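Hi support team,

I've been running sequence recovery on a batch of backbones for a student project. Most finish fine, but this one hangs at about 90% for roughly twenty minutes before it completes. I'm not sure whether the input is malformed or the queue is just slow. I've pasted the structure tokens below so you can try to reproduce it. Let me know if you need the job ID as well.

Thanks,
M.K.
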């Protein structure tokens, strides 16, 4: 009760201190260029997720959730979450892409995109609900970067589990990630 009263008092003080006619400034928001590049690379790949997104983004309306509902076509404004971070300290950020698209009962699919050569490659696929329930709505979950590393690459955890790294057999100098067995995510390699 006391916290509520303090919060209410602080709100009234802030409102009273704001001069009438004061303006607020908002910045235009854009999708980060790295996210655009990584998404475009995925769409142009032969990965089944990339093909599905391309087909449903650019094609005709494929259906609706309900008669009055939204289209089932991929809409990045509501069906894409991302995170950008440098997982190995080489100065070239990796991009996590998580897609909230209809998948039946499976968790939403996602990928970690890695720069390789002059382009991008899918370093691993993840499946993660990506959302945490907060009252009557859901908010994006977290990607936790773990202290453990494999060949300089930080392990990470999402809701569905922890992931580590191994050299990519089909791309010299690149790494792939894979789920870690329970209890091994904190070990340094």
């Amino acid at each position: 009760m006391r916290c509520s009263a303090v919060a209410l008092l602080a709100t009234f003080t802030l409102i009273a201190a704001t001069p009438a006619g004061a303006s607020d400034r908002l910045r235009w928001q854009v999708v980060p260029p790295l996210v655009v590049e990584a998404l475009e690379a995925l769409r142009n790949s032969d990965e089944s997720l990339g093909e599905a997104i391309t087909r449903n983004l650019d094609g005709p309306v494929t259906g609706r959730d309900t008669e009055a509902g939204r289209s089932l076509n991929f809409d990045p404004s509501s069906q894409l979450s991302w995170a950008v971070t440098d997982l190995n300290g080489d100065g070239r950020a990796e991009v996590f892409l998580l897609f909230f698209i209809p998948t039946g009962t499976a968790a939403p699919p996602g990928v970690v995109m890695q720069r390789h050569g002059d382009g991008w490659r899918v370093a691993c696929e993840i499946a993660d609900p990506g959302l945490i329930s907060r009252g009557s709505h859901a908010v994006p979950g977290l990607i936790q970067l773990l202290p453990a590393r494999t060949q300089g690459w930080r392990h990470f955890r999402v809701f569905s589990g922890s992931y580590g790294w191994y050299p990519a057999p089909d791309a010299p100098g690149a790494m792939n990630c894979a789920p870690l067995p329970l209890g091994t995510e904190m070990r340094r390699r």
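--
Follow-up from support: It reproduced on our side and the slowdown came from queue contention, not your input. The longest helix spans residues 2-17. No action needed from you.
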